[in-house]
Every structure is written in structure tokens, then in C-alpha cells.
Amino acid sequence: MLGWNKSSNAQQLALTFQQARSNGIPFERLDSTYRSAVHTDSTKVVSKSALDQQKLQQAYQHLIQALGQYLVKNNFKWGKKVR
Description:
By secondary structure, the protein is α+β, with helices and mostly antiparallel strands. The chain folds into two domains: 1-34, no CATH class; 42-77. Helices cover 41% and strands 12% of the residues. It has three helices and two strands. It has helices at 17-22, 30-33, 50-73, and strands at residues 2-6, 11-15. It has a two-stranded antiparallel ribbon with strand order 1-2. It is flat. The two termini are 20 Å apart.
């Protein structure tokens, strides 16, 4: 799914890749339009410094932990083991 903020309504939207494509946003174009959060080539990442990269990694870890806590709190169960 693709997500972005629609500032005119201040609501967040998410589209499936099929919906994005039908709206003229092919996912193949995203890599050339937006820099990556992670990449093997450090010139292609969004972070400007090692400190920025560290902050991004910490924020991502917090996001994943918060998602896990939310799922546990709301009794979400995976249908099978995922890793």
C-alpha cells in the first residue's frame, strides 16, 4: 500500500498499488522520484549523516514496537508464524 498526507483535508490516504497505478502513480516511478530510507549505496538514502541515519533507525524501531503493542492490546493474532 502507498500512503501520503492529503493536506487539503488533513486526512491520511492509503492506496493499493493497483489503485495508485489507475490514478497515474505507478510504483516503479517511486524509486526515481523519492530517495530511499535505506539503500546499499549511501548516496541514494534520504539521511544526510550517520546521526540522521541513526535517528531514522530509532524512529523505525519505535514505530514497529508501537505497532506490536497495539496489536497485542487489540488481541490481534497472526494466522500462522511469520518471520
